[in-house]
Structure to design on (476 residues):
């Protein structure tokens, strides 16, 4: 072997030293540091790329285990995983993929793919997610949980889909859409639908349930939703479509006779009473001391704010309504505004009481336990809006808006499966902490000095990096 360049000589020297070590079975201690700069130059030139690989090593496997790899497009995987790692606009996603993963896409190619995604894969991706979730529940879903939220747009004009409406994001001046989401116990996503921004949330429940039932025929289910979905029309339709349901009740809005029955009962901590309603519907009411303290605390704070506004003279008759704590205001004489102490006293009688309307065969405690699972869907919306940054939405066309939601849906499914596996593997890590660790694991693609072959070396040196990769059986 011969060399004619400085780097070539360094490479041959490295080969010779390794051969000496192999023959002598001994490590050579180097006392000569004169050639350090040459070695640094050689190392620099041998490194081709440095990129984040930890997230790829774990998340791509989970992506495939769910079954999303049935869609053969690499861009789908990049969009879904990027939404989990670095959520933002499509432009920022393109820059992120280029900078950290050497994956290069044009904005036009991404937009074309969003059109394709909506036309070909929306139903299929939800089916893949559903089938995977069904396996986790051993083929049987006993309950589904439904809620709605709003997603706003950075736009000033309304159109057929994006409309002004009641904003749960606190953006009443921004056009929005209404998003209906169906999840399982534990918060695994099942299906979603989008509606016009001014759609009343109570009118979204039945369409989503019927679409879900027609697609998957899940069998008998108990539908759980909060009091915002409670309406006479919804109850009638749920009964007509043979759904069992558990809905949050507005016990203060019950009939005078029903309210009298509720208040006449003796209530202690964790007491539960059942009341009969019409058409096999039951009203279940429970009492909690913790809830009573919270109700009292919230009302006291609301009253203090009202008293402050009364003293400042900033209240007028337009403030007299039944919203929030303004219901405790009354007008006396020549438009003198004061607190209605009788209303405050009557309201305090309901502290700690919570109602549930159901036609299910579950016993009262089981009804309450199922309803308490609704926090999972609240968590789903919170993760989608904060961690996945599903809002604001920058797209204008309805099909691309829906594609954006499809990607977010798949990302949330990926998040939930990562969370499940972290628990199953007893890592003690949250998905957020695990992702932070994975983002710190790099891969160095370099030319091996002996074989002259190219290889990517995973750099995982810390204890937490090694433990996390080991938990997922990843060799490094």
């Amino acid at each position: 072997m011969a060399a004619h360049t400085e780097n070539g000589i360094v490479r041959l020297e490295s080969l010779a030293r390794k051969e000496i070590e192999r023959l002598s079975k001994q490590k050579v201690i180097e006392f000569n540091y004169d050639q350090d700069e040459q070695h640094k130059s050689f190392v620099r030139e041998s490194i081709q790329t440095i990129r984040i690989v930890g997230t790829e090593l774990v998340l791509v496997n989970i992506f495939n285990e769910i079954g999303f790899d049935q869609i053969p497009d690499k861009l789908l995987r990049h969009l879904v995983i990027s939404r989990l790692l670095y959520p933002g606009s499509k432009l920022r996603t393109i820059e992120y993929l280029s900078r950290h993963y050497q994956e290069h896409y044009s904005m036009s190619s991404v937009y074309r793919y969003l059109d394709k995604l909506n036309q070909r894969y929306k139903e299929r991706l939800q089916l893949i997610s559903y089938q995977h979730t069904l396996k986790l529940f051993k083929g049987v879903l006993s309950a589904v949980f439904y809620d709605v939220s709003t997603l706003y747009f950075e736009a000033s004009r309304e159109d057929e889909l994006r409309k002004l409406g009641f904003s749960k994001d606190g953006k009443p001046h921004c056009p929005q859409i209404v998003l209906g989401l169906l999840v399982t116990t534990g918060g695994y996503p099942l299906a979603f639908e989008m509606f016009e921004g001014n759609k009343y949330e109570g009118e979204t429940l039945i369409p989503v349930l019927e679409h879900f039932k027609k697609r998957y025929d899940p069998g008998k289910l108990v539908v759980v939703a909060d009091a915002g979905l409670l309406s006479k029309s919804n109850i009638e339709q749920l009964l007509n479509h043979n759904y069992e349901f558990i809905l949050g009740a507005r016990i203060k809005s019950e009939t005078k006779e029903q309210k009298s029955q509720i208040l006449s009962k003796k209530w202690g901590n964790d007491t539960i009473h059942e009341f009969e309603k019409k058409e096999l519907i039951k009203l279940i009411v429970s009492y909690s001391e913790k809830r009573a303290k919270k109700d009292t605390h919230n009302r006291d704070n609301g009253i203090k704010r009202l008293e402050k506004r009364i003293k400042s003279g900033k209240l007028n008759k337009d403030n007299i309504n039944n919203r929030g704590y303004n219901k405790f205001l009354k007008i006396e004489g020549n438009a003198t505004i004061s607190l209605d102490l009788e209303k405050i006293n009557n309201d305090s009688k309901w502290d700690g009481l919570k109602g549930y309307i159901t036609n299910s065969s579950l016993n009262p405690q089981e009804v309450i336990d199922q309803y308490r699972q609704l926090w999972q869907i609240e968590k789903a919306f919170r993760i989608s809006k904060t961690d996945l940054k599903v809002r604001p939405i920058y797209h204008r066309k309805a099909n691309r808006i829906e594609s954006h939601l499809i990607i977010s849906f798949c990302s949330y499914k990926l998040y939930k499966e990562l969370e499940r596996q972290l628990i199953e593997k007893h890592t003690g890590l949250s998905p957020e902490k695990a992702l932070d660790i994975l983002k710190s694991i790099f891969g160095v693609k370099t030319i091996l000095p002996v074989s002259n072959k190219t290889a990517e070396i995973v750099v995982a040196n810390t204890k937490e990096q090694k433990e996390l990769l080991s938990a997922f059986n990843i060799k490094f």
